[in-house]
Amino acid sequence: MKVYAFPEEDKLYTDEVIVLIKDNPNPVIIPIQCLGAKPVVNASHDVVKFDRALIGKTLQKTLTLSNASPLPINWALKNVDKLSEEFEVSKTSGLLKPYREEPVEITFKSIKQQKFQESIVLEVFDNENLGIRQEDKTIVLDAEGFNITLNEQMSVDQILDFEAVRVGEPKELPIFLKNQGQYPIKFDYNIKKKAQEIFTIEPMVGKLQPNEEINVIVRFLSQKEIKLKTTKNTADITLNILEGEQNEKHQSIPILVNVNAVFSKYQIAPLKNLNFGPMQYGETGTRTFEIRNEGLFEFKYAICDYNNEEEKAKIKEERKREAEERLTGAKEEEDPKAKGKKDPKAAAAPAKGAPKGGKGDPVPSAD
Predict the structure, then answer these.
(1) Which of these, 49, 85, 91, 338, could form a disulfide with 142 (CB 3.0-4.6 Å)?
(2) Would you kindly state where each structural domain of the chain is located, as residue ranges?
(3) CA distances from 138 to 50, 118, 121, 135, 236 (A)
């Protein structure tokens, strides 16, 4: 005896087969049952959504297929061949055993700046090819590739040329940054420990919204003579560009520096004594001495009686005030002539001021 079952619904069917045996007064009852089932596969995602990915970055998501029926089921993913080259699907078909799961890895590789919304279709059908199918399910792939774009100046070597700087006097130069991309970015500066005594940066860190710009100020101040000309491999300052949400480093830009910090240099001739020789009473004699600027910068000088402590104190106080103003970056126009004093026995008169001269050229002497 063969018994066939043709369930029409997804449910449990029960019945009995009654067997009558000749010359046996008691029938034999055989219980039978059949579980009607349809192919049912559930997908873990209706939309597989990737985070925004910087160009060159690869992301991966797992789509899990679960067989919710007691039957082995065939499944397949359609339209995979129509996806953009940025997407890759690890497996496109297979046999799924009852109540088992199948992970499918979907990879997105950011190649160009573009938004993607593409789809694949999940097909589910019975394992016996009886034409029993689950309704096709559309699965959306949502992804975006983007790039960080800065102003054109940042595409070439960044060189801060401080040129010649007085020792003890600050000098500032700007670095211009502009976010020309579609999303916020962050930036931060790193200064090597050995250079932290001579360089300060304001601000050290920051965030730029799309089309926002900023001038970052790099300040140099050295208390000793130093000459720097850094390269990409020896740079003391590095600018890091970060993605605004994930803080992922996108680019490190070395900041090259040229600077020559020097003291003022001068020469006095004769170095010590002015010899007037023998002179008659009432006679007037004139002698000269030369002050020569042999450095790169102008400087002030004052002449006074070495034994006049009051005049010396005034000069020192004035020089201290000028040094403080330079240290704080104060900008003021200097009088080309500085105050000076004659012999304290004579009436006070202005001495010659700081001589002017071209940068790097010897300055004419002042008598």
Answers:
(1) 49
(2) 1-36, 41-146, 152-262, 264-274+287-367
(3) 17, 10, 5, 10, 54
292-326 pLDDT per residue, tens: 887 777 777 778 877 888 888 888 888 778 777 76
- Superfamily name and number for 152-262: Immunoglobulins (2.60.40.10)
| Residue 175: closest CA among 162, 159, 156, 191 | 159
End-to-end CA distance of the chain: 136
Tokens of 149: 């774009």
Q: What is the pLDDT of residues 209-263, one digit of tens each?
A: 999 999 999 999 999 999 999 999 999 999 999 988 888 888 899 999 999 998 8
pTM confidence score: 0.63
Q: Quick check: 53 and 141 in contact, CB under 8 A? A: no
* Percent of residues in the chain assigned helix, strand, coil, to nearest 5: 10, 45, 50
Nearest to 333 by CA among 322, 319, 349: 322
CB atoms within 10 A of CB 308: 13
**321/153 Cα distance (integer angstroms):** 39
The amino acid occupying position 276 is: F
Query: What is the per-residue burial (b if ≥16 Cβ within 10 Å, else e) of 32-54?
Result: eeeeebbbebebeeeebebebbb
- Residue 44, Ramachandran bin (φ over 0: left; ψ between -120 and 50: alpha; else beta): alpha
Whole-number Å distance between alpha carbons of 145 and 157: 27
Q: What is the CATH number of domain 41-146?
A: 2.60.40.10
Q: Measured between alpha carbons, how far is 238 from 95 in angstroms, rounded to an integer?
A: 55
Cβ contact 275:177 at 8 Å: no
CA distance 167 to 172: 14
Three-point CA angle 357, 359, 364, nearest 5°: 25
Strand 226-229 and strand 185-191: the pairing is: unpaired
